[in-house]
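Can you give me the bound-state structure? Components:
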Amino acid sequence: DSGVTQTPKHLITATGQRVTLRCSPRSGDLSVYWYQQSLDQGLQFLIQYYNGEERAKGNILERFSAQQFPDLHSELNLSSLELGDSALYFCASSLTGGAGYGYTFGSGTRLTVV
Amino acid sequence: EDQVTQSPEALRLQEGESSSLNCSYTVSGLRGLFWYRQDPGKGPEFLFTLYSAGEEKEKERLKATLTKKESFLHITAPKPEDSATYLCAVQAGYGGATNKLIFGTGTLLAVQP
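Here's the bound-state model for the whole set.
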C-alpha cells in the first residue's frame, strides 16, 4: 500500500456521461498530480495541485477538470466522455510542489467508456 | 520540447542474464531523473532519483547511472520477479514552479526461469 488512495478502482460508463475520480494523498503530502495512461501514449501529465491551488497544467482536455479540497483530497471530473478516454488514471502525491522530488502513485482507476 | 525516449521497448532475458535498459533525454534544465517500476494494472513504484551526471544508485539487483544525455538501468543476474515495465521520467525546467514528471513509454522486461 503506497498510502495514496484512489477510488473507484474500476469504472464502466457510456459515451457522453460524466464521472468523478477521487484521490486521497499520502498523509502529510500537499501536492497532488493526475496522470492518464493509455496503451499507445504512456503516462501523460494532466494537472497538478499544491495545497488547494492549481500549480501546473499538462495535456488536459477542456472536458476534464480537477480540484483539490481543504482536506487535500482531489477529484478529477471527466465529462462528455468519448471512447478514447478509456484509460488508467493515476493520482500521485508529494510533500512539496517544487522540483527535485519524486512522488508516490496510487493504484489507479481503470475507466472504460462503452 | 522536453522528451524522454526509452529503449528497447521490450526485453526478454533468461534468469541470471544481466543487461541494461536505456533512457535518453532532451530537456531544458534537468532537475532530476527518476526510475519507476510498474507491474500490470498497478501504479508505478519509485526506484531511484538521480540528480547529476556521474551519479549512481543501487538497490538489490538494480543499478542506475546518469550521464548528461542518458541514464542506464543495469540489471544484474535478474530473477523472474524482476519482470515488469521500467519507466524513466525527468523533471525539468527552471524556476521551480512545478515538479511535474515527463515519462518515457517504458521498457517491458520479461525474465524467464
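A couple of observations. The first strand of chain A starts at residue 5 and ends at 7. The interface with chain B takes residues 2, 4, 31, 33, 35, 41-45, 48, 55-56, 58, 88, 90, 92, 94, 96-108, 110 of chain A (CB under 8 Å).
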